[in-house]
UniProtKB/TrEMBL annotation:
Pfam families: ATP_bind_3. The lineage of its organism: Bacteria, Bacillati, Actinomycetota, Actinomycetes, Micrococcales. Belongs to the tRNA(Ile)-lysidine synthase family. It catalyses: cytidine(34) in tRNA(Ile2) + L-lysine + ATP = lysidine(34) in tRNA(Ile2) + AMP + diphosphate + H(+). Residues 43-217 form the tRNA(Ile)-lysidine/2-thiocytidine synthase N-terminal domain. Its EC number is 6.3.4.19. This is tRNA(Ile)-lysidine synthase. InterPro entries: Rossmann-like_a/b/a_fold, TilS/TtcA_N, tRNA_Ile_lys_synt, tRNA_Ile_lys_synt_N. One of its GO terms (biological process) is tRNA modification.
Length: 340
């Protein structure tokens, strides 16, 4: 139990008053699960030891003890720092002291071409999904907050991304649920203080070698200098962009179904589409034929759309030694001449 939940000897049996931040977190978790429409759902709770995830752990442990959910905490040790094994063990022990079963998963990260941040994220979600499947759980809960959402949108803006990227993180995606997206980091930190919860301050969260750390610092500076609620405004931008992107993606999916995986497509099948739908369909088309999506940026997609819209004979090289040739009313995907 946390400090705030312990009753001293001889004290009144009255239940302690719940602090507003912890109450908001419990309410957010309950609301997210209610919206998902499952009674007594099975959950994997991802816990790193920081304030956000420890506040989420505290809330879900309470609901677990009440029988409202069936939850298991999973903390992933990425092995990037010597102290992380100790932190992971402490997190698991805390979860178990609060009545929730817990486990530690250890991974080793190979940064490769995607970089350390992305590689760690990929490994972490793979472990969490394995744990979910093994437990037969409905959802993986993460502690992303509105503050994280604002950072995600800002990073998308800096990359010059489109609507889908600016839509940020969805409250639910597959088996992933983010119940705290409507709350700020200040609230999770307040909950931990009020409940006497020990948290870990990861020094990598202050390392400006990582783009997200720089975005976090930039946001804090902008809010101070401009006197505007930029975090809340960027999170609202994400909600608006997500609604638009979901609508466009639905139309693009319908248009892609008969094109996906087909090497030769009539140009008119593309040119009949609105620009917002066309860019999605064209990108999906070439990826379905083997072009690596991570190497297919917005500029190249725009060039390919322009080639198809023009309708005259032409060709455009694509990643993976491939190309698209437009000729005689057909858009043909093939190996580039130099690769044949």
């Amino acid at each position: 139990m946390s400090t705030a939940e312990r009753s001293s000897a001889g004290s009144s049996p009255r239940r302690p008053t719940l602090d507003p931040a912890s109450g908001a977190i419990r309410g957010a978790v309950r609301a997210a699960l209610k919206a998902a429409g499952r009674s007594e759902p099975g959950l994997i709770v991802a816990v790193s030891g920081g304030a956000d995830s420890m506040a989420l752990l505290h809330a879900t442990a309470f609901l677990h003890r009440r029988g409202e959910i069936r939850a298991r905490a999973v903390t992933v040790d990425h092995g990037l720092q010597t102290v992380t094994a100790e932190v992971a063990d402490r997190v698991a022990a805390t979860a178990e002291s609060w009545g929730m079963p817990a486990e530690v998963a250890t991974v080793r990260i190979d940064a490769g071409d995607e970089g350390l941040e992305a590689a760690a994220r990929t490994a972490r979600y793979a472990v969490l999904e394995t744990a979910r499947a093994a437990a037969g759980a409905d959802w993986i809960l993460t502690a992303h907050t509105r503050s994280d959402q604002a950072e995600t949108v800002l990073l998308g803006l800096m990359r010059g991304s489109g609507t889908r990227s600016l839509a940020g993180m969805s409250p639910t995606s597959g088996h992933l649920m983010r119940p705290l997206l409507g709350l700020d980091r200040d609230q999770t930190e307040a909950s931990c203080r009020a409940q006497g919860i020990e948290i870990w301050h990861d020094p990598m969260n202050d390392d400006t070698a990582f783009s997200r750390v720089r975005a976090r610092q930039l946001l804090a500076g902008l809010e101070t200098e401009l006197g505007q609620p930029i975090t809340a405004n960027l999170a609202r931008t994400a909600d608006l962009c997500r609604a638009d992107a979901d609508f466009i993606d639905t139309r693009a999916e319908a248009a892609s179904q008969h094109i996906r995986g087909t090497a030769s497509v009539p140009v008119e099948d593309f040119t009949a589409l609105d620009d917002a739908v066309l860019s999605r369909v064209v990108r999906d088309w070439v990826i379905s034929l083997g072009v690596p999506g991570q190497n297919l940026g917005a500029v190249r997609v725009a060039e390919l759309c322009a080639l198809i819209r023009d309708g005259r004979r032409g060709r455009l090289s694509l990643p993976g030694d491939t190309e698209v040739v437009v000729s005689n009313g057909q858009a043909v995907f093939q190996l580039a001449a130099k690769a044949r």
